[in-house]
Amino acid sequence: MESLEEVKELITYESLYETLRKEKINPELQELNPIFFKQVQMYVKDKEAILKSQEGKDSVFSSVEAQKTRKQIENSQKIMIELYERRESKIIQLAMFHSRTNSPNEFNNMLPEEMELYKRVSNELNAFRGSILNTLLTGNLPSLPLSTETKDLKIPENQENTQNTSLKLVKFLNAVPKFVGDDLKVYGPFEEEDMANLPIKVANVLLENQRVELIQ
Fold it and tell me: At 109, phi and psi to the nearest 5?
């Protein structure tokens, strides 16, 4: 059993960033530490405690440090959202494949909470396939399956939704002041190591000028 101190030491902003990078460049679900969610929880609490301490001090230095910590928390949140949605898409794709092919369940590299998501999505898909498609194939009218509650499922299309295909997630290598993109929208300002989802044309200009790096 990991101690809380060990859990805190196992994750950093850089390791979060690297975890997302690996998840994005690999089509398969990537392996995470079994206590990954606990690591993230402790990381967030630790950063919030640091920020609270910095904000409680009345000095210019503390104000600057608090701003940096606040930015890092915001960037970390963006990383965690992107990471969750990447893994969510892969899990739903696996559930869809299982439902369509009746193949064995695959839990490779899933955390316990993710296994539960996979099982619930698989069960719902199987229930609707049986009540609608299989019923039609036997010459009968479809009937909705008995379910606890109707919920909207986020079913990815080609593992990317329309919004994601028109945006690029980038990390700023240098501070960039406010600027107007070719879409006439104002962007920024951005600080070094900030992360942002930007339109492809805007991101490409920044990439060409080596102001950002692409999180692939």
Answer: 65, 20
